[in-house]
Amino acid sequence: MSYQAPLCDMRFVLHELFDISGHCQLLGNGLDRELIDGVLEEGARYAAEVVAPLNRNSDEQGCQLSDGQVRTPDGFAEAYQQYVDNGWASMTGPSEYGGQALPQMLACNFHEMLMGASLSFRVYSGLTEGAVLALYKHGSESLKNTYLHKLVSGQWAGTMCLTEPQAGTDLALLRTKAEPQADGSFKVSGSKIFISGGEQDLSENIIHLVLARLPDAPAGVKGISLLLVPKFVAAADGTPGERNALSCGAIEHKMGIKGASTCVMNFDGATGWLIGEANQGLACMFTMMNDARFQVGLQGLGIGEAAFQGALRYARERLQSRALSGPAEPGKAADPIINHPDVRRMLLTQKSLVEGSRMLAAYCARQLDLEHGHPDAAARKAAGKRAALLIPIVKAFFTDMGQEVASHAVQVYGGHGFIREWGIEQLMRDSRITQLYEGTNGIQALDYIRRKVLGDGGAELSALQAEFSELCDAQVGRPALAELAKSVQARLGEWRELSSAVIAASQRDVQEIGAVSVDFLQYSAYVLLAGFWLQAAARAQDALETGSGEAAFYQAKLQSADFYLRRVLPRASAHRESLLGGADCLMAMDEASFAF
Amino acid sequence: MSYQAPLCDMRFVLHELFDISGHCQLLGNGLDRELIDGVLEEGARYAAEVVAPLNRNSDEQGCQLSDGQVRTPDGFAEAYQQYVDNGWASMTGPSEYGGQALPQMLACNFHEMLMGASLSFRVYSGLTEGAVLALYKHGSESLKNTYLHKLVSGQWAGTMCLTEPQAGTDLALLRTKAEPQADGSFKVSGSKIFISGGEQDLSENIIHLVLARLPDAPAGVKGISLLLVPKFVAAADGTPGERNALSCGAIEHKMGIKGASTCVMNFDGATGWLIGEANQGLACMFTMMNDARFQVGLQGLGIGEAAFQGALRYARERLQSRALSGPAEPGKAADPIINHPDVRRMLLTQKSLVEGSRMLAAYCARQLDLEHGHPDAAARKAAGKRAALLIPIVKAFFTDMGQEVASHAVQVYGGHGFIREWGIEQLMRDSRITQLYEGTNGIQALDYIRRKVLGDGGAELSALQAEFSELCDAQVGRPALAELAKSVQARLGEWRELSSAVIAASQRDVQEIGAVSVDFLQYSAYVLLAGFWLQAAARAQDALETGSGEAAFYQAKLQSADFYLRRVLPRASAHRESLLGGADCLMAMDEASFAF
């Protein structure tokens, strides 16, 4: 399937909505508009011309394991080499290790493009960036000097080795062991499953970040340490040296992302080194996990965009039945199906969800940038709190959204949507993993409410709501936007009340936390997107009033905002009513009675 | 994956909710409870022991086409032979042609079991029953005598050949031709796609029902005729005779139901015979299509049940994390995940949707039975109208529901849900077709509102609402049910108001029909299910009050009803608000602006 990066919308979000040039200045980064647009355009070319053409075949061909070697789909190795050679791998890496230290607000657009072009291909490189972050933040100087340059450049790739058969969500159940050696290294033994890119033929070395227990570790999550375990131990000259005692035991046969190897990794006394303090592995891993969760959110967004593009293309080409109001194209045998209101409903649902999510992604990326790069320490802390609040929403909402949008695309294609050659059903299969990995979406919702909302008694959430409320206040007096602004303002008021009710209920009964979590996250996301749609409408209205830019583009923004408010935002009502239904009706039934 | 027919619930629905024995008496059919339960139990055994074990392999092995022959997955041919030998094929067939003429209200339970055990396997036999109906109702005596016995017994299978590359939803665009011959037969030429079971190795003959145009036919849907085109023309002795000029040109590679052959069928001057009058093909085909749509609804239900069973089994076995309220099973390393409220939310959503839909299926099957078998002509007509109103709801809502329930099952399994060997992701892939074939769910929604609601100015819908309202009135005075009954009554009032608004808006602006159709169908379905849940709760309360049967079963029914009302029914609010958002926000955007 072809894929074209949505450059028009990306530029709108970056420049008009979030002033990325000003953002770069604040971060001390001298990127100007020309450079930013240049990166976007080059990225778009790479995604469309190099990566996207590999995606369909990668699904049919999959990965092959033989003699412990994984063969990735045709073309992946060459595309990965370009990815490294052209500096895409090092975009966000720290400059002291050869990275370009570009802001996430820019990089996330390129990453979205990669996800949309081929999720399978992106899986291999995505975790390396998280590994760089964890190592950079928590690793010893010696480990950093040995491994970071090659990870930043992408010559070496990183993985995250958390899951074991008995330990998925519940890392307390981890059994992998790390035995200290006299030279300060550790011997790591155990078996990990679901390791994305655990073995592959793209990079010359693979650096595994492995959660394991030291011999004297306390039980549970307080006894978990993070270790760096390379496939090849780095030689003194920085090249891959001795082969380590680890191997890929099997690769999984999956519903989707078949071009990405998902490995069982066996560590048989493999040599590793501690990252950070002993028993502090979870905290170190969370540095990586936050990045990974943001990236997985982008996967939902990227696949959503690709699915929307496919559906739109088909809806404009496919001739079937006449418009309800009479022939739209009398010269043709039938009208393009985009004339049918229900097809438009699906397309606009896709468009308004994808574009709404893109605004939230950029906003969240901005917080991540400010957390790491704002000159003021208090501002860094504030941005960190904001990002922490938003990341579970981005991860869970975007990936549910990506699945929904892909499913709408299948529906627009009708029976053809079910046929593999069109490439549309692949998007549904590929995106389904995003709701599961890096913490299922149920776990994201628990993280959101338990740690991020209840964790500070709702303070950060209130601050976010207040920020959006101010944005509404600023627009409510403009006649063209008053209806929209009032409607968003009303939802924000409802959200504040609902938040208080949820916090009170959760403090009264601990089961309420889990009973309302998913609905509360979804509710929050729909209202947040409404806030962003109001902002987009305000910028569009500005542009129409000043006559700058292409009027049709801004008109479409106003129309999408209107559609979102009228036809998508009502879902928030269902989530609100449902969560107010409470925990009792969930907990009442005896376990045995479920089987009747 | 294992599958066990939900006999407990089926017996509850058939005997306690809908008095199937009385229903059979009314139809002049002497089935008693013992016989009915015997059929259910034998059906359950066949589905669980013969069909279900074939399903996982059928997905991996798929179908193979070579030299025009399709090879179905291992075991399908033997299982099909048992299906024929043991009389499952002839359950609903007319008795004059060797059928058992069992009521749909009973048969639909067996069919649901088949769908749950293996949708791919069921696809081959499902359309034969529709072909029997169409031929029985519209065929000439000679055609019926030649073909019906073997179709009823299942020795020969039937297909539906509608779709062509340019003609999916829009049958007006059909090009396949039928040229009359001197002997009264026709030569059929053209290419059909997406023909389920178009070629297979299960039955000794395949009887295609083909839509085609006669030379003098008017353009559009008024020029379509239905023809019977056998793979082997029946010989005088009733055996398969001369091979007809038709062939399978290709089989599709699909997202799911890989064990079902989906064929491109080429008719190269194949001999066929008219069924019904020339140019009346669509009306004849609709006899078949209504049955097929009801069956596809059952597919959603069956897969939903299978997915719920899988999720429940896993949720009771999988140990991960501790319950929020403290360890539920302190002796184990962690608690079974069924202790977590959010897992219960998913399981109860599955359970209440599946069981709610099963009640609607039985209710709809009753109408189908009464339409054909009620002794009174006016009652037959009334039942036909009721069935016609409900069938698009059953088809669209059940199949959306099946997909949702399968997706919840994947989510309960976490990462394992994405791995093929567990068989859970297969349910998502298999069920996805049900939202597309026999008319996409968008088309069902248009049929519902345009033909079934607007067609008689809302009269039949009003009658249905009044019937449910009376059921509420009967329960609202019982203290144990008053809250439930009032809440359903309120929704019914809201539904009546909404219906009036929808009808008025559609009469004002034709675009509103397509703009509100899907939301209105979904809204209607959620409220209908609420009505059935109230009925189930009333029967459960009766049983608890009289102390009959197993109290825990009835207690669970009350709890499921309560859950549905509190946590699922709120979705109706979103559909209501969304559809009131109207058509303007769908139609405003220029086609070109979608691409920005």
Automatic annotation (TrEMBL), chains A, B:
Domain Acyl-CoA dehydrogenase/oxidase N-terminal: 45-155
InterPro entries listed in its UniProt record: Acyl-CoA_dh-like_C_dom, Acyl-CoA_Oxase/DH_mid-dom, Acyl-CoA_Oxase/DH_mid-dom_sf, AcylCo_DH-like_C, AcylCo_DH/oxidase_C, AcylCoA_DH/ox_N, AcylCoA_DH/ox_N_sf, AcylCoA_DH/oxidase_NM_dom_sf
Keyword Lipid biosynthesis: no
Swiss-Prot/TrEMBL catalytic activity: 3-(methylsulfanyl)propanoyl-CoA + oxidized [electron-transfer flavoprotein] + H(+) = 3-(methylsulfanyl)acryloyl-CoA + reduced [electron-transfer flavoprotein]
Domain Acyl-CoA dehydrogenase/oxidase C-terminal: 279-450
EC number: 1.3.99.41
Cofactor(s) for this UniProt protein: FAD
Keywords annotated in UniProt: FAD, Flavoprotein, Oxidoreductase
Domain spans labelled Acyl-CoA oxidase/dehydrogenase middle: 160-268
GO molecular function: flavin adenine dinucleotide binding; oxidoreductase activity, acting on the CH-CH group of donors
A Pfam family of this chain: Acyl-CoA_dh_C
Broad enzyme group: oxidoreductase
Domain Acetyl-CoA dehydrogenase-like C-terminal: 469-590
Family to which this protein belongs: Belongs to the acyl-CoA dehydrogenase family.
Task performed by this protein: Involved in the assimilation of dimethylsulphoniopropionate (DMSP), an important compound in the fixation of carbon in marine phytoplankton, by mediating the conversion of 3-(methylthio)propanoyl-CoA (MMPA-CoA) to 3-(methylthio)acryloyl-CoA (MTA-CoA).
Protein name: 3-methylmercaptopropionyl-CoA dehydrogenase
